[in-house]
Amino acid sequence: MNEQLFALDIGTRSVVGLLMERDKNQYKLVDYYMIEHQERSMLDGQIHNIVSVSKVIQQVKLQLENKHNTVLHSVCVAAAGRALKTKRIISAKDITQQPLMNQEDILFLELEAVQKAQYQLATTEEEASLDYYCVGYSVIQYSLDGETIGSLIDQQGVEAEVEIIATFLPKVVVESLLSALQRADLELEALTLEPIAAIHVLMPPSMRRLNVALVDIGAGTSDIALTSEGTVTAYGMVPKAGDEITEAISDQYLLDFNQAEDFKKEITLNKQATVSDILGFEQTIEFPDFIEQVAPAVESLAGSIAEEIIQLNGTPPKAVMLVGGGSQTPELAKRIAIKLNLPTNRVAIRGVDAIPFLSKQDNLPVGPEFITPIGIAIAAKQNPVHYISVTVNHRMIRLFEMKALTVADCLLAAGINVKKLYGKPGMAAMVEYNDKVVTLPGTFGLAPTIQLNGMNANVDDTIHNGDTLLIEKGKDGEPAQMTAGEFIGELHTITIFYNQSAYQVHASLTINGQAAGMDTYLHDGDKIAYRSQISVADFLHQFQIDNNIQQDFSVWVDDQKLVLEDFSKSLQLNKEQAQLKQSLKNGDQLVDYMYIEPTVNDLISKLGVQAYRELMITYNHKPLTLRKELVTVYRHGEVLAFDDVISDQDKLQIKHSSTDPFIFQDIFRFISLDLSQAKGRVELIRNGNPATFFEELQPNDQIEIIL
What we know:
This protein is of the alpha+beta class. Helices cover 23% and strands 35% of the residues.
């Protein structure tokens, strides 16, 4: 047996009722009935007089019941698209210290974005008095550090972002609709949204990746919906429609509003019409003259629609579909195409015959004004919005179900700020490490805990009518707790060799000036000094070694101090002169180094004094050097030889001798004569001539002594 459907399109000018049958995926229009409102009980799609509207609904219902001998209990209806609001918004989160993100983290980030959109909508001046509900959202893209990414799961970086588009509907729209139905003895079987209804029957999901605008031009308003990226991306409304044209006709031809409306329909259909104005004059109007007279109003309507499309879409769409009775306004499609810089064949009026799964019948209305009513019947059954009641933290929440509802939807409807449900991070500690301020972070706060009907749940779990939700704030993180070892790492040890002996040197760790171990816990304000290297000075101090790495060798000469640097004691590091501030590394060699003790001759050289004079001569045909000392060095009154060793801190005196020339008798200090061999008188010969003992010698003299 075929399923019967009853649908109502409650518009600004009229109410249309339809009876339809569904056979699997095909639909058949059984009958329809339309009644116009007798008073202005509807304004811009919103019911302003519930009693009046309910009477019209009841008339439509009774007409169809009587004609088909049936009783209608429930009905499919649509909420006006003009009441919908869409917000496109980005939510970001710092994840520099965040562990790998999971699905729960991402869902909370999406919810935060929806709540930001909800807050923006609530704080907009003209919307402040309206109570809006989110009826769905779609993720446009995820980003990581400014780059688009397919998924944030297990990603790491600096900042994660999600961009969503959320759709909102005011509560008053649905509540007034429900009240009008209830007064007409009807129950709400299913609810849809007018733009979604039209799009559903004209644009299957496979076509929604195209950037197309659908414009439902009614009597009082023109509703706009845009598709792109596989979804409905925006909704809008222009407070101008068919009535604007009717009013222009009324003004031009002096007709009352209803008469002008009838005239508009007749001349559009027959291309000619005869009317009688309010003064009683009758005239016949030809279609070209009619077009000329209403052109300014058509131009204004086309401009408003095109402007709103650009405002919503940013750029002209690829195509525009026109539905609704007002779409048949002469020249309107052409002028919209001009305003959007589109070819005229890219803006088209779509009639009922464009619905692929609707059976074609003789009684089928073919005009574009029936697209939305038929779409309501079909979309309300295929994609209905049901109301359910859920208890959230002991408070009853009512949601309308445009999709499978989740815990996240309940949190949004309850106005619970997801961001505030996360536990706060634990208190951080500030310490100084080697004179630099370092922050020790506390542990992360935990995500909120959610219970659905007493069982643990996640934000993406499905909820049903009558469910009970309890959500509690996540546990706050713990304050920073860290030991010196956890903060610094392993304590290093190196080996230093001093005079061939091995010394084990440990890194230095102090906290607040006191020696500390690696298991010492750090506290806020601690001053940590850690040195993994040691200087030469620290090494000498630690092992109580004389830290005078260079000891001067000094003597006192005639009561004046004299330093002999070449004979001072020094500390060598790897065979180079050591410096106290020099850092030591593992395996370094330290050696005390001192030269041999100096002699008197070294001292005289340091003083720059000439110690002796020499004269080169030949004695008995052999070279001989005569030497006469010019200084005499005394230590404690004792004369020192030039090769005698002197000691550190010796007190010495130096006596200078005269510089008399060498004479012949000086030779006898450098030779030895055996006078016992003499046979007579000894002869002294100088350069072949006899000489005396006191004769002055000259360099290279030839000396002979004959015994």
